[in-house]
Design goal:
- By secondary structure, the protein is an alpha/beta fold.
- It folds into two domains: about 5-150, Glycogen Phosphorylase B (Rossmann fold); about 165-395, Rossmann fold (3-Layer(aba) Sandwich).
- The chain has 15 helices and 16 strands.
- The chain has helices at about 10-15, 20-30, 60-70, 70-90, 100-110, 140-150, 165-180, 210-225, 235-250, 260-265, 300-310, 320-330, 340-345, 380-385, 385-395; strands at about 5, 35-40, 55, 90-95, 115-120, 130, 185-190, 225-230, 280, 285, 290-295, 315-320, 330-335, 355, 365-370, 370.
- The strands form three sheets. Strands 9-10-11-8-7-12-13-14 form an eight-stranded mixed sheet, with helices on both faces.
- The longest helix has 18 residues, at about 70-90.
- The chain is globular, with a radius of gyration of 22 Å.
- About 40% of the residues are buried.
Length: about 400
């Protein structure tokens, strides 16, 4: 029996980009055993995929965090993981990490055939490698397909997949009903965050929250939509900007607003398009006669998030994990791309159900070869995208 270990320590989008690889392995080697080495944060994306026989959830970042608190514990955590991997006697690893340490750890785990990318000479522990300067001009999945050729697999079906359990789907429907969303409602999602892996530079991937607020107002006022705000706990301040602007029609930043909130708070005289909201008795819901805004940021795990996205008619978002979750779940999307090249990291395969809004500026993309060069143009690639422009794209898909 062939035994394969997939190694991908990155975020949501990168994990979903490997789902065509998982499918191809199982189709070409039906009796194979597939292991997956990912980080703890994203393991719930994979747990319902029955084609994956075992998940090893520990990344270099996870190890580093443990090591910082307790060096001895960090060492033994890694050692125990490598022992677990070694027990499985994998024939080959498909290493998407771009990191020489994973190649070394695979070697120490007894994996004879180690396939991956040689980025900046980091492929020295690989047995089969492709020299890589960066991902450019074609989608990440196409690069992943190149590695499969080392095991005589031609990747034909490149569609993403994300499996949501029946139980989670039922709970998502119940949750929306409890929040006052009728089954016949037009339910649209907004994910204002994205770029968690960019750390302090994440804001450079994010369309301004004030623009999302204007868009939500139009979706509710003109379409009677129920708008669900989605994101991590770290993105809660973005949702607060939008809700407070919509509810209060604030001429001054709301009391207790963060610096980001103050910057993004809608200026006086530019709020006429937003409907008046009142807070409902249900926490996190603001509603008017025509629709409502439901704030679920920071309140959902990955499985719950996937289930809620599955219930949407459409998701409006930045370049980030929720975009690729929606694509994998067959939910229509309108996404706003700034510094990142959508040809490389955008919705894939290309489809009329997924519209990318971007500005043709000489300075973009400014994220190339896995590096953000910095912005010297006041985020014009995002700031120049208007709420009306996004709204029109949404209407074409509904």
């Amino acid at each position: 029996m062939e035994k394969f270990l997939i190694i991908n320590p990155f975020g949501i989008g990168d994990i979903l980009f490997t789902t065509p690889v998982i499918r191809a392995l199982k189709e070409n080697y039906p009796d194979s055993f597939i292991g997956y080495w990912c980080n703890e944060r994203v393991r719930d994306l994979l747990k319902n995929d029955l084609r994956i026989d075992k998940i090893f959830a520990l990344s270099r970042g996870d190890i580093k965090r443990i090591y910082k608190k307790n060096p001895l514990k960090g060492f033994f955590t890694l050692l125990n993981l490598l022992k677990e991997i070694k027990k499985e006697k994998f024939n080959a690893s498909l290493d998407f990490s771009l990191d020489s340490r994973y190649g070394l750890w695979s070697k120490l785990s007894g994996i004879k055939k180690r396939i991956g990318f040689d980025y900046k000479n980091r492929g020295r522990f690989l047995t089969e490698r492709i020299v890589l300067k960066g991902y450019s001009a074609r989608h990440v999945i196409e690069y992943y397909a190149d590695l499969l050729r080392f095991i005589n697999i031609e990747l034909c079906d490149k569609a993403l997949e994300l499996i949501v359990s029946k139980e989670n789907r039922a709970r998502a429907k119940e949750r929306l009903a409890e929040l006052g969303v009728a089954p016949s409602s037009l339910v649209l999602g907004i994910a204002m965050g994205g770029g968690a892996s960019w750390g302090r530079d994440a804001a450079y991937k994010q369309w301004p929250a004030k623009n999302f607020a204007r868009l939500a107002g139009k979706l509710i006022k003109d379409l009677g939509a129920s708008v669900v705000l989605l994101g991590s706990a770290d993105e809660k301040p973005l949702a607060e900007v939008m809700l407070k602007a919509s509810i209060c029609h604030c001429e001054e930043p709301p009391k207790g607003a963060t610096k980001q909130s103050k910057r993004d708070c809608l200026p006086a005289g530019r709020q006429a398009s937003l409907p008046k909201f009142t807070l409902s008795e249900v926490e996190g819901v603001a509603r008017n006669d025509g629709g409502c805004v439901i704030d679920l940021t920071g309140r959902l795990g990955l499985e719950e998030l996937a289930a809620i996205i599955k219930e949407l008619k459409l998701l409006v978002c930045n370049d980030g994990g929720p975009l690729h979750m929606a694509v994998a779940l067959g939910v229509k999307t309108v996404s706003i791309f700034g510094p990142v090249d959508d040809r490389v990291y955008g919705p894939y395969p290309p489809s009329s159900d997924h519209v990318v809004i971007k500005k043709d500026l000489p300075c973009r993309p400014c994220y190339e070869n896995f590096r953000f060069k910095g912005c010297f143009n006041e985020k014009k690639c995002l700031e120049d995208v208007t709420a009306d422009e996004v709204y029109e794209k949404v209407k074409t898909l509904l």
